[in-house]
Batch of 2 targets.
Target 1
Amino acid sequence: MKFFVDTADIKQIEDLIPTGFVDGVTTNPSLIAKQGKDLSDTIKSICSIVSGPVSAEVAATDHPTMMEEGKYLASLAKNVAVKVPLTVEGLKTCKKLREQQIMVNVTLCFSAAQALLAAKAGASFISPFVGRLDDIGEKGISLIEDIVIIYENYGFETEVLAASIRTTQHVIDAALIGAHVATVPPKVIYELYNHELTDKGLKAFLDDWAKTGQSILSK
Ligand code: E4P
């Protein structure tokens, strides 16, 4: 499974690159607004340090303007994936941009029917929002499961990108189901490292090591 980082914070992305867990980045208008920086500059900066797909979202809601915005965003760097919402206008835009070999991430997916339409429109990625479905009392991860099955049934090449990931369990569940990608906030990526037995075991090893009085590098 590929890991994308769900943030527009350059510092957080830079810090995560040495971990090897930055196969791509996803941004959205809310994440851009949180940084308070220029969209184009932010996307260019992220693309200069990340070689995988970097999602940048259109802000228009009509097809002609989405096309203009999408082409502009794609011109910022060769690894930009234009993000469009799952609407009629968004999927028209997806189809047209894909005809021009531009990567497209279809976002705000909340049903398997929507995911089927996105695949037929040639989406490079579909982003089902797990956490936001959990928020309204549904089981978000079940949607990922349904989409993986539907795409496998017909051999669609659209990658299932589990989004709105809030917990380590979401990541595990997405991996068990076979999601191609999970876009994970930095905080949750760091939480994936944690296990209390790792901390406890490390402490015991270091305590015993100290008793030996040895130093590995002293010779
Ligand atoms: C990423 O593509 C999505 O925009 C993001 O995962 C949404 O996450 P949220 O529901 O936590 O805002």
Target 2
Amino acid sequence: MSHILIIGAGGVSQVATVKCAMNTKTFTKITLASRTKSKCEAIAKFIKERLNVDINTVKIDADDTKAVVNLIKDIKADLLLNVALPYQDLTLMDACVEAGIPYIDTANYEHPDTAKFEYKLQWAKDSDFKSANTMALLGSGFDPGVTNVFCAYAKQNLFDEIYEIDILDCNAGDHGYAFATNFNPEINLREVSAKGRYWENGKWIETDPMEIMFKWDYPKVGVKDSYLLYHEELESLVKNIPTLKRIRFFMTFGQSYLTHMKCLENVGMLRIDEVEHNGVKIVPIQFLKTLLPDPASLGERTKGKTNIGCVITGIKDDKPRKVYIYNVCDHEECYKETGAQAVSYTTGVPAMIGSMMVANGIWSSKGVFNMEDFDAKPFMDELNKQGLPWEIIEMDPNSNRIVK
Ligand code: NDP
């Protein structure tokens, strides 16, 4: 019996809100609030037509903590799911502390003016959440999110000690555009154009963007070029799995995407600082976002699959072990069910499940937490029920050969 307040009405919100409306035993009331109310109303209309569930819609500026506190109190929300942008994480966390309700998000805080991806400022709010007698659950998307839960499940059930993790993120979807991003273009392009970084033998090693590439055979997708990126779950997993000797993150990109990105970068379109254009100040990457297709509109035209998972190496009963835990998701099936493509789906479903874990008190504590801080099993069970089933493959510990 919970009233969930969902903030943000983009592609991820479309899926998270639809999934909450499919789980009305947990989410007895849903309020969807965002900057542009018409986007909330479009999601509400979809839910009414598909599921015959009514949800409330509200206009809100998530940068205005006071307004959010007032809204939480007015509607008597029990928990807040932030699927707006990473820029809003801190103001929304502060609102939850003031109102004394749990906070859930899918991406770590970023300041619009600095491409820094770190949990520092969010972890620093641990004592605020403890004093307010409530909790924050950080990074409940797919990566971060499900990837952390896969690692936690392996640590809790499959290994005595974990030594190496490679997180492998493949989107083999085709939307037919020469260039488009599958989630918010500004956030996506900041992430993939940043320096690469991985952790080995106790220290971080920096690489140039896209410097390290390897080919991986993704089950049900095929062999894809996979590039090393820095990704935020590396930071919390290094902290929470102290036996780790190495952790890396790889994402697939096609040559066309990389060529477009390089050109945009070369002409300054990925700049995040202000420039003056005809007497008007603009931020080039924000202007580019205006020109690119809205990710929420890609659903109808995207075909193909995603495959995201973790290859984990360590020991069990004194013997070396290597497992591959992954999920495969089909863009067209996601669209049929929720009106959104698989990148929004693989983020929105875990956002709902994380909220469900908190709403039902299955994951319950005081303070600020990452996904791997809790028992992974109930979350893994829900993934199977809510549309993101996973597989575990046993691999030869000394090669990439599948054993069973
Ligand atoms: P979109 O850009 O499609 O949607 C963002 C929504 O937030 C829009 O409706 C936007 O409003 C709203 N918004 C932005 N600023 C404010 C504000 N100040 N006040 C109120 N509402 C605001 O993004 P996505 O749906 O693609 O992504 C949502 C989140 O999911 C992002 O944080 C992204 O980083 C994260 N993500 C996480 C992944 C994971 O696996 N962990 C993967 C993919 C995404 P408006 O419509 O007016 O612009």
